[in-house]
Amino acid sequence: MNTYTKEIHPDPEFYIVKFTRNLGMPYLLFIHGGPGFNCGTIEYLIEHNNLFRHLNHNIILYDQRNCGRSRKATNHVVHKNNIEDLQKIIQHLNTRNIHIHGLIGHSYGAKLLYDFYNQFQSEIPGIFISTASSILTPRLNNLILDLAYLKKSKPERYNETLSKMDNLDIKKIWNISEKLTSLFHENKERPFLYWANIECYETVKKIQQQINQPVNMDVFVSVRKDLYLTESNFTVNIDSLDISYLWINGFHDFIINGSEGILSSNPNIITFYKSSHYPHIEENNHFSKLINKFFKKQRN
């Protein structure tokens, strides 16, 4: 039997779905990663695989602008749109007496959440999953992985790229990354870097094939480009925020951690040692119990 009752929340712009176990429980709003992704996979896992069954909260998911089942507008999506949309969704839910008790941001969603706190006054506690203290860290790690794949699959193109790397600055890193964008989905081995639990990965892969809600590549490219336009935008200094928060990373997540972050000296980062990029899925029971403990502490 499913733990939660599912209900599509009416909204003219965004696909918003509520999972309610008990009307007396508060809600957490989950902000998916990307950019360009959607909440389809985690929605399926909650509905059919009892994800978050140990969580003492109801859950709300939504698809970001132009992603998944949210309305497709013709405008060029940038990062600022997603920040403002998050505020709009929270306010909309509040007007319907659905008060958000906590915000969970995963990967790009964690960067979105961080920038939301810096733009809007909010005391809502935050949970940041799978993020580095600078978005340049995953960008450089992804570039190294793309070059390693290129070295094996297309050596001539690799040598051509390598010949232009006498020196690197932000602009050059971005230009090289842009030219290698297609490799992200072309490299069939890449997903294994994002999962420590292979069984979880195989389950998610089947779900993604079944629900058929692909990444919006236009949003992926436009938002990512916007994020890397200025170096001042790179920071994700969670420790500077004046809110209660949790920061959770997976030990096996090379993309986020790199070599230096795997055993981070930051005491505020909680490491899940059996997870890679998806600790909230790979160690869901551990994650849920940690969230319960965090919010119980907030009440005391």
What does this structure look like?
By secondary structure, the chain is of the alpha/beta class. The protein has two domains: 5-133 and 195-225 and 233-299, 3-Layer(aba) Sandwich (Rossmann fold); 136-194, no CATH class. The chain is 43% helix and 14% strand. It has twelve helices and eight strands. The protein has helices at residues 40-49, 79-95, 108-119, 136-153, 155-162, 170-179, 183-186, 198-211, 217-227, 254-257, 279-282, 284-299, and strands at 5-9, 16-20, 27-31, 58-62, 100-106, 126-129, 245-250, 269-272. Strands 1-2-4-3-5-6-7-8 form an eight-stranded mixed sheet, with helices on both faces. Helix 4 packs across helix 5 (155-162). The longest helix is centred in the middle third of the chain and has 18 residues, at 136-153. The two termini are 33 Å apart.
